[in-house]
Model the fold of this input.
Amino acid sequence: MTSFQRRHPIIRTVKAVMRSGNILKYGLIILTLFGFIFLLQNISNEENWKYHAGAALYKFQNRIQSITCQRRPTFHQNHSFCSHLGQPPSSMEALEEQELLDMIEWPRLPSGSVTPALSQSSDPAHSLFSIVPSKNGKRWCVGDQLEALVHLHDFKGRPKRYGGDFLLARLHWREYEAGVVGRVLDHENGLYTVRFPLLWEGSAQVEVTMVHSSEAVAVLRRLREKRPDRVFFVSLFRLGLYSETTVCNVCLPQDHGPLCNYTDLRTGEPWYCYKPKGLSCDTRINHAKGGYLKKVITKKEALLFQSGLNVKVPIQASGTDTIKVLTSRKENSSENLDPAKLATSGYYYRGAWRPLEGITMQQFDRASAVTRCLANKRVNMYGDSTMRQWFEYLLTILPEMKEFNLESPKKVGPLMAVDSTHNILLQYRCHGPPIRFSTVLASELRYIANELDGLTGGPNAVVAISIWSHFSTFPVEVYIRRLRHIRKAVVRLLDRAPGTTVVVRTANPQALDHDVSLYNSDWFSLQLDEVLRAMFKDLDVLLVDAWQMCVAHHQPHHLHPPAAIVKNMVELMLSYVCRDRTRTKL
Done:
């Protein structure tokens, strides 16, 4: 055998396959490899071989990769495994992190309990809620507060004795296109109180939904802390005609092979890939979602995630679920309500979102109004696909906006559009890894904090950010670290260019089934949402409350909210961009 054959990747692949001991499974591959060896022996010139056999070799390597990439390493670590990577937090940052984790701490199952049988878990069909009578003889007025009491029972009809169930509630009336989110209080004994502000005159109906039982939440908590690998990523490495694909993630077990370290030099955000066997780390071409690990829970646990049975199922009322709201009393006017006490940022009426504090919604029903607002402005949008929706929406309603073809995938970007007549520039770029898009060039992977540091800013600059969904499978510390870097960059931007408008979009609920629940449950999203709000609450930015805007709306939940909700989100942003700065202060 020649020295070229000894060092060539095909020969190394044969040896690796033989060492695996799985000759039967790879028998056909081995025969094909020997066919290539025979071809090599009959071609004297190495450059000739490249021209004659290159295409076939490339196809063969792709076949090998599709097989070997299925052998994914898994790891079982505690929640600190990912969080210790990257730059260590300062003492103040560590204190903030602990306060945030304490803030989102969820009631746990009784001490010492294991995952109970389905029959012992919360059953929405056996559970009930009732409206608490008004103090004024069942008379409710605008400005009052409505209470409902929820009783959780298990599948045998027995009352639950502990809390931790994940409930969503809204008060609505379809005829008025009105809706508002209810605040759920867990008494940790199977009873829950839901409180709604009464914000419109007329009829209102209570709706309570069990998203997950407390038993299911316990499974989700364990997955988040112990199995951050249940969504995995891959990168393609290539040099000439030879390529390899390896697994990547925020954290990888080092006992599966040497790692390529792609930790960002400026932010310290960690990212690793397994080093290709025959290529250097510098030959990385792209990034992509690899897939979802299956069988991450037991068959017993899987019973807790059944669509139509115990995942996002309505709870029925024991009596009436509807009330009549009368004209407000002077002392209880809706204008005098304290949004902080209500935990409500706004509500819908006649299909339009009405924020309760900080900003007055303007009308942008015509393209000309949007154009006037954005004239001479640069709008930079960063984040996930829920921010890309804003870019797409503005593109459809601005008639003179022309999109530039940057030869970028439509669902990935980067994207850019210009209205040269009115001097409007729209740009969208996805956030850095982890991101579950199909394929992103490694050169296009940018961290939001670094992008913000590259902006000039100023009165004509608008920045919109949405980053949440792709962090749902990781320990919360990973998300806190990312937001901390973005927050620091926002502060730097506002310091050097105080007139810059910054808008941050929060998380939103989505349609759930068994599989989605394990990777992108609303429970994960809610916890990230609360962390984001806390970390940005004291900054001069607008928080677009996507969570409440989706829960309060009559449209079904979806990862990418329907156009009616996106319209309200964008119009809230535009109302903030074009507010009267001399009168309005958040």
The chain has three domains: 1-68, 118-219+304-334, 353-577. Residues 1-68 form one domain. The chain is about 30% helix and 25% strand. Confidence is low (pLDDT under 50) at residues 1-84.
